[in-house]
Amino acid sequence: MTNPSPRRPAPPPSASPQPSRIRVGSAPDSWGVWFPDDPRQVPWQRFLDEVAGAGYGWIELGPYGYLPTDPGLLAEETGSRGLRVSAATVFTGLHHGPAGWERTWAHVAENAALAQAMGAEHLVVIPSFWRDDRTGEVLEDRTLTAEQWRQLTGLTERLGHEVRERYGLRIVVHPHADTHLDTEENVTRFLDATDPDLVALCLDTGHYAYCGGDSVKLIETYGERIGYLHLKQVDPAVLARVVAEELPFGPAVAQGVMCEPPAGVPALEPVLDAARALDVDLFAIVEQDMYPCEPDAPYPIAERTRRFLRSCGV
Asked: Which CATH number fits domain 22-311: 3.10.20.30, 3.20.20.150, 3.40.1790.10, 3.30.420.40?
């Protein structure tokens, strides 16, 4: 009688995949919403219905007044659709110095109060435009003086402190086309001159590519400063025409410079891989600028984009 074969030890149980620390959402911007009230924009109820239907669980508030500003009503409308708020957004002109602080703070305060009431953790801060984003009218010099840089960095730190102390929110500053925070040179100069404890960055992959930046490089170099992501892509062919014709941002968007993933740049898979390597909790909010757009256009794009992002592991 032969001895039975020795029993092989059972393989160790496979480790469960770690849940992603990146929370995906979308924003009114992806539905062509740029203004509190505009007849070319979809009604806010339709936005909420469609963003939930497309598979997103998080939203930004968009321009103040587009969504209801009564916290009770907004909580009811978002909660009934399974949606939560990640952030509000403000535009600022802090490089103008203390003279503009009160006007800036009034705008910040109403947005921050609503965001706080909705349980959000972030306030996205976008610098003011140096040229009108629709007409192209030059409003001021596109290059800041040394004194304006000091005002910008110093008052942004003050804003970060005040917003944290009064509303419990973290500001995340958003580099943006046609503002003074646009290129790699300006973004890194800003980061090097501000306190990491008070000022984090909202990296918008589309705007950074629009202005020639490399999102993966920025994440790998300044990872501790990345507090929030906007996922967006640029159509290189349209961007080349925009640059050649020196078009302002609004007309560039109308020509389709921001495109549906994964058709444009930067590739989002490496961006998300770099963000995951930070091993921190991050929001990644889809923002495909489409103002103006046909009302039936955003929803199918939002569904496809959500499926694409799932294929990227988020």
From this structure: 3.20.20.150
